[in-house]
Amino acid sequence: MAAPKVTGLSPKEGPPGTKVTVRGENLGLSSQDVKSLTIGGFECLLYVEWKSPSKIIVRATGGIEGGDVIVTTRSGGRGTCTVQFRYTKLSTGPTKELAVWVDESHMLRTSFGRNRPTSPSELHPNDPLELSDEANVGRFPVEELHDTFPDGSGNVLSENFVPMWYLLENHHGASFDDLKAGLTCLRRKVTQHQEGPLSFLKSNVMAIVECFQVLESLQTAQKKDKQEVGTDLTEKLEEAVVKSKKEADSLFEAVLARKDRADATRNALSALQRFKFLFNLPASIERNIQKGDYDVVINDYARAKSLFHNTEVAVFRKVYQEVEQRVEKFREMLSERLKKLPAPVDEQKRLIRYLVNLEVAGDPAWDLMCYIHNWLQDSMNSCKEKHLVLASGESEENQNLNDDDLENDMPQVIMFVEEVVSLFETHFPDFWKLGQAYLNGELYSREVNDSRDKKGVPKNTSFQRMAVNCAIKLCNMVRAALLSHTLKTQSVQQSQFLGNWSQLQAAEVLIAWLPHSIRCIRECYSSLLKLDLPQEVLKLVQQLLFDLRVHSLTCLFTQAAEDVRNFDVRETWIVEMDDQNGGTTQLPLLFENRVVETLQLVREIVLKSGHQEQEVFSQINVQATLKQLTQSLLHAFVQALRKLANSDQKTEMYKEYSKGQPSVLLEQGGDNNHQPPPPLVRIIFCASNNGAQTKFRDLERTLSDTYLERKCGPLVGKIEPSMYIGQFDWTSLPLPTGVSLYVKETLMNMIEIHAEVFAVSPPFVSKVMTRIVEAVAEEMARLYECVHKFSPNGNVQ
């Protein structure tokens, strides 16, 4: 038969007394065929249990390091081994039960030349160097040993034994000569151990003799007991064992009680150490909340919940309840922080994630949408109330200020519009982006089956309604401040809620600030276009912007018409001569400048359209309104001209003109109380030179008739009295030597009118003088017809 061969061990390591299953080939034909089985050189044949030629169970009886497992059979001889068994350190104690005999030789210490047993608790080997420790002062720092030899150990029985560690720990104060002497002692022990059993017997002859004597005395005592008791010695032995047990119990009862208490304490400490995470969790939660490490709190809570949520251990359940209380306060704190607005979007997203991970009741993300909607509505109301109070106080102060100060200071209603639009423009986009992220599932949110709000409305519909309500709120507030006439459909209660701004601010002051308001709303509208908003929201702001532009158009033309209507007080009657048109005053230029200024403002404010803004003149009603406003502006200029036509103020032009006339003409007129000529000629020229002759034809005709009436009446009325002055008689006239004085006077008056008209407007001379000549000719013909008879000299005259 072939030699035995060991190929496997189970287990491959263990303390002395471990049962080892040996597997291999040719391990014997029977239990009698197995001659020897050694583990690391130690015989274990007494504990062999043969199972089959390929399996043997053996108990490892001794050894320090282990080694090869060799099987020797009678049929195959000495075998071989491909695996090794390794012994591990066995910790023993006075109360621990063991299945094998423990080598206690290392528990003996030489003291005063004799071997005396030491306490069983001192389970450490003797010093292999046998050196005295008197030179050691204090202990070598263990921390330095661990730092120097991180993987080493000073235990001679350990696999990681490091001699330098052992020397530093036990003999750091020994001299070099002492260490040499210890090395010599160690070598001698090794040499004795290598000499084998014969050397052991030689060195322990007395001990062996004593053992034989003890065995002989035991045999003698056994024979004596058989004679006294009989062949059955177990009964007496049992009594002795029971008695020994009782004495041992009485002796070790206190020790065992202390051991039980120590075991209980050790188990409690072990449990505390093992579950220290749970016991330290309440304090850890408070500490991390104060530090702001919310993620750590949430992770620790999730871990504790997964481990101890359904625990039946009372102490664990009590600690976990305390953890739940701390976490519930943490939830309430996060919920309160979520309600504090305004807040950055990133912080709001973090708070939602925290609340969702903490499994707070409800839907934190949807609650945030509602919070922002309500806060935005309340903020706009607060802004309105604040500015209403300031506007009421400002209206009282404005009574003591002049118009210039009022125009320079921004009205409170414009400040309100600017602030409320800025508030909406700043916070509404964040509100919309958060809502879209929530509805698209991009926001941290708990998966719920119910996609409706508390009223049963789908959340996407409810959110769009929130956005529309905010836009309606903004538009109504701006309309109440600037376009109160567009809110006629609102109830009285709604109008009072929006505020009565018209009573606190004059409309004339607001006209100059309408462009600023339009720019603010246009910037807000541009920012809203960047969002994916529903058309309902965009149309609200777009219509507000359109109405405000139309209102600005109306206000600009209305204010221009009012200014033109009061041009009569600004007329200085300083005439500027022109080769083509004659003399003109500054009135047409004032009118032209005012119209150009108005049209410039209309082009910059009203006609200029932003992205996706409706064209103002695309609607027919706006075109009709513009036509009426233009007509009213021209009518205002006509009214100013009419005021000037009825004015009697003297002009510098007339004074300069009268200084240049010969005094003879004044003497011939016989009237030194000349009234200044009314400014009808200049007004007529202004009307005809305006470029809008069709609109001013009626005014021109009226002014011409009035001027001619005022000039022809006095001129024609003086002809008859001048003709018959000095008892003039057509039948008794002397031979005439020249024309009569009445003819000269009439001609001089006509020359005066001609000079007056020519000084103002040469093109107007023919039209005026034709009418004057016709009136004089008609009057002369009438007077000649009234004469019954002319003398020959009268006929010549």
UniProtKB/TrEMBL annotation:
Keyword Membrane appears in the UniProt entry: no
Region annotation (Disordered) ranges: 1-23, 111-130
Residues forming coiled coils: none
SUPFAM superfamilies in the record: E set domains
Keyword Protein transport: yes
Pfam families reported for this sequence: Sec5, TIG
Limits of the Exocyst complex component EXOC2/Sec5 N-terminal domain: 126-652, 693-797
Ranges of compositional bias, category Polar residues: 112-121
Annotated signal peptide: none
Keywords: Exocytosis, Protein transport, Transport
Stretches assigned to the IPT/TIG domain: 4-87
Record-stated family: Belongs to the SEC5 family.
Subunit structure: Component of the exocyst complex.
UniProt-recorded name of the protein: Exocyst complex component 2
Native organism: Limulus polyphemus
Gene name of the encoded protein: LOC106471572
